[in-house]
Amino acid sequence: MEKIKMTTPLVEMDGDEMTRILWKMIKDELLLPYIDLKTEYYDLGLEYRNETNDQVTVDSANATLKYGVAVKCATITPNAARMSEYDLKEMWKSPNGTIRAILDGTVFRTPIVVKGIEPCVRNWEKPITLARHAYGDVYKNAEIKIPGAGTAELVFTAEDGTVTKEVIHQFKGAGIIQGMHNTEESIGSFARACFNYAIDTKQDLWFATKDTISKKYDHTFKDIFEEIYEQEYKAKFEELGIEYFYTLIDDAVARVMKAKGGFIWACKNYDGDVMSDMVSSAFGSLAMMTSVLVSPTGVYEYEAAHGTVQRHYYNHLKGQETSTNSVATIFAWTGALKKRGELDQIQELADFADKLEKATLHTIEQGKMTKDLALITSLKEVQVLNSEGFIKAVREELEKSL
Length: 402
Ligand code: NAP
Ligand code: MG
Description:
Layout: E1 10-14, H1 17-31, E2 39-43, H2 46-51, H3 55-67, E3 69-72, H4 80-85, H5 95-103, E4 106-111, E5 128-132, E6 142-146, E7 150-157, E8 163-171, E9 175-179, H6 184-201, E10 204-209, H7 217-240, E11 244-248, H8 249-258, E12 263-267, H9 269-283, E13 289-294, E14 300-304, H10 310-317, H11 327-343, H12 347-365, E15 368-369, H13 371-374, E16 383-384, H14 387-401
Parallel strand pairs: 1-2, 1-3, 3-14, 5-12, 10-11, 10-12, 15-16
Antiparallel strand pairs: 4-5, 4-13, 6-9, 7-8, 13-14
Helix pairs in contact: 1-14, 3-5, 6-7, 11-12, 12-14
This protein binds NADP nicotinamide-adenine-dinucleotide phosphate and magnesium ion.
């Protein structure tokens, strides 16, 4: 078979620990034999980030802006323990945070649904994609513990000196206060990323806040979404037969539990933080969750939602066998290849990515899976495979479909 040709390179961001091992196996077994893989390679492994004073992360994000599509391996976010483990010059920032800031992106997380791994919510038939606003609110707040009686006020001083004040509370005793903010620009970027992604994946978009209680703060989110939708996206949504719909957060939570899935749920920062953990664990496993960062201008960075699976890596270093699930990392690659195929109009590449996804799912449906899935599957006959064994089994399945 002749290898599939690519025209534009994918931005490849390599990573750390167990996922770095899987990364190479996936490339060697599932991609390189079939594709004349064109990538611009950036090593985001912690050692090289340290060597380049983290410049490599910035470069990889800028390359993503240039080419439009990236695929990323999980990476270590340094903490105190990593400082000594890797002899770091500095506690480098989270690469995901750096990349997100440069791309001004929104993260969409989607569970990979497969027969045999049933969601806890029986009526969920299709994946629910969660979009979380990643700026502001309680994550960039100012808080004060009030020692005793007094007046708490919100004060805004404009550049021209004009002061606007609002009493928060007349305290009779000790208490707490909190101030938070968001910007119209960031909310607008979030809205556009959500509308673009809905169009891209041809799914309905839900958005919810508590605007009945928060008549200015949350209401502004509602208004900005509505305005951008009406002005920029409504016609396209109607053409595709998809819907944008706004409701109260309480109503959204209740409806999600009764829904069949197959839509995008956009959430404010805190709601998204909490709800994404609920939705992902209800769908089965962190190892079966993909993640894509989408910029408001339509630049895409695909990755697995899980981390570097450190515990497995240490076992691997001790020479012990591992059974680490590579599904989400495989899907990061297929997502990126499909997008590249679509943008460059290389149907063969998109078709190949589709076949690789189907082969991966089919392997699991036949009972061949890694240990994490074997523990939760409803299938009766299960063959637990090691990290490499699973990828080889996917390859066998893939060969049948080519
Ligand atoms: P993690 O790598 O997601 O792993 C946590 C646990 O979840 C694992 O020990 C394992 O459970 C299970 N698990 C996760 N992915 C799995 C997979 N593919 N196959 C099988 N089991 C899987 O989270 P962490 O251990 O908290 O973090 C490790 C490193 O990853 C940290 O340095 C953190 O900074 C980084 N991280 C990176 C990203 C990213 O790059 N996007 C995201 C999160 C964390 P068992 O041990 O029970 O088998
Ligand atoms: Mg959380």
